[in-house]
Amino acid sequence: MILKAANIKKYYYNSESVIKAVDGININVEKGDFIAVMGQSGSGKSTLLKCLATFIPIDSGELIIDGNQINYKNRKSLLETRRHDIGYIFQEYNLLEHLTVEENMILPLIISGNVGKAELRDKVEKLAGELGIEDLLNKYPGEISGGQKQRCACARALINSPQIVFADEPTGALDSKSSEKFLELIYDLNNNLGTTIIMATHNIIAASYTKRTVFLKDGKIIEQISRQNGHSYKDSIVQTVAFN
Ligand SMILES: Nc1ncnc2c1ncn2[C@@H]1O[C@H](COP(=O)(O)OP(=O)(O)OP(=O)(O)O)[C@@H](O)[C@H]1O
Ligand SMILES: [Mg+2]
């Protein structure tokens, strides 16, 4: 198992009320899994992904990634986990506008340090080729399309060869053609390279690319569907979305 979350909770408090953004979630993720997280706006998808990626500390429960129990006080081990195990694709791409595509891509490696120039070049060339962005490396984010930015954001998430890639609404800002291309890309990543992917989405088509879909409501898992032979996975997702 690459990731295990046991009864994790994340509550937000304001003067009048408490928002139970993640409210006792259990999830076991095997290596090579591809999971969609669905649910209405405010159901807790982004908070859950950020908790699982260690970006937001959980209030309670247990989180184990690649055999390591996450302890937010142990900064060194936390950074190691983030460096080796976690890649994150944000909906808004989060590319730095004054850096080129290539510079954005290698940012995580520069931050980790210890990577020689030749190795850096190799990694960039290989990944850029795989993602079809080799002609964009010297361009700035302002000069490329939304779909191309998302590929670049994906390249940055993958440059460290992480065990798990999280993607929060990765197709939310893309037109249908770019969206389909991007989904095929991450499908191949999962299928050919065995990268574990956890993706939050509102989109039924996006969810239908995955192996299983987890439905959230008020910070809780209310339903789970797996792709099974002989059943239409997409139809099951449509039904579950319609009835919740
Ligand atoms: N930093 C925060 N401070 C206070 N409340 C927050 C914070 N982040 C999220 N929330 C609240 O937690 C709940 C879950 O939010 P979250 O962003 O996880 O939902 P979501 O399912 O990703 O929604 P969307 O589909 O709109 O992206 C919401 O009620 C939200 O307002
Ligand atoms: Mg969200």
From TrEMBL:
Gene Ontology terms, MF aspect: ATP binding
SUPFAM superfamilies noted in UniProt: P-loop containing nucleoside triphosphate hydrolases
Every ABC transporter domain range: 3-243
Superkingdom of source: Bacteria
Keyword Nucleotide-binding: yes
Listed Pfam families: ABC_tran
UniProt keyword annotations, A-Z: ATP-binding, Nucleotide-binding, Transport
Entry keyword annotation includes Cytoplasm: no
UniProt similarity note: Belongs to the ABC transporter superfamily.
PANTHER family: ALPHA-D-RIBOSE 1-METHYLPHOSPHONATE 5-TRIPHOSPHATE SYNTHASE SUBUNIT PHNL, LIPOPROTEIN-RELEASING SYSTEM ATP-BINDING PROTEIN LOLD
Full protein name: ABC transporter ATP-binding protein
